[in-house]
User: Fold this.
Amino acid sequence: MKYFKFRLNDTAGNLIYEKDVEVKNVFASFLSKLASRLVMQEIFVLGEHYSAIVIPHYGDSLAVNPIIIYDKEEVLEQTQWIDLCFEEPIQPDQPVKYITIELRVRERNLIYRKDFEMKQINQYYTLYGVRTLLNLGIVQGNLLFLSPKFFAREDDEARFDRERIPKLEQQAELLVELIPDDSEDEDNFAFLYHDSSFYAETKVVGNPCTDDIRIYINQKVMEPLIKEGKLSLTVERGGILVGSVYESNDGGRRIVEISDMIPSEHNASSIINLRYTFESWQAQSIRMKKEFPGKRIVGWYHTHLIDISIRTEQDKIEKTKLFFSRDDLFMHKQFFPEEWYVAMVLDPQGNSMFFQWKNQEIVTCGGYYIFEDVGVAG
Assistant:
């Protein structure tokens, strides 16, 4: 896995904060601003789709001027929105000195390549990434006087679910954690902050309410989920939803980002219901640790094959497969009790709906968002 280890030191060189971070969380805001500047310079066109490659360097030989080339093969080869690549041997214990960024425009097969000093990146991520320190009073005053460093890594040791704050350790206080160990204590969670504008281009499904959990599901996982629904012709199918949970910057309810799924292989299912078994949960937990390090289970999905009749707000009776049964309620309360867990119900016709915790009750979500891992110039 490719990622960055972020360390924040004070002016005396003492470590005050350390965290493993995903590449997209470090560079998303910077890339969005860069793309906007390129639109103003008429290098990019408003609305064009771009992806990015981030290349770390350890020397001081920055290229002063950008390079623009056209290469259809290179542009189409990239599958991630933001990817970390290496042009020189990785030095995991040496801070990155500067970054080469390649922006690749899908519509014109254009590649824009330019070098940037890390301090240009730091001003975007540092202020965003250490909000917890400000809330805890660990950091006070002007963050620009701190000394942030990024270390490029490629290994299986990333822990996106942990923060290290030595001052709190020294005071023998509780270490701020994002995901506890298997003996979880959810009351001690402190999620990273996130901005919904991070998802540059989204498709709205339904009518999301302001007091709903905000659900963003990646297009790459939406497609196999719909396929799961269409495959459930004789028995109900199900599995878990994998992703991340964030605090929202605007003070609203949390953001649930769904990036992957794991179909369940040990469900007890029939045409009318689906039940989780211990073996199913155990198998999915093993796959989570192996295939999706740094991610978390954010909920579950299942299909329905039978209809029920419901009364709409317009006082009409309609039949639907998108409902929560008594067994569904039991399973959600048993396996997914935290307020940010969500449940997705699908039918063979390609329809879907999310359910959420609200005021300690399990209710429907007004809607959700589908996003793609691609930037939009604007």
About this structure: The chain has two domains: 2-190, 200-376. The longest helix spans residues 23-40. The radius of gyration is 23 Å. Residues 171-189, 266-273 have pLDDT under 50 and may be disordered.
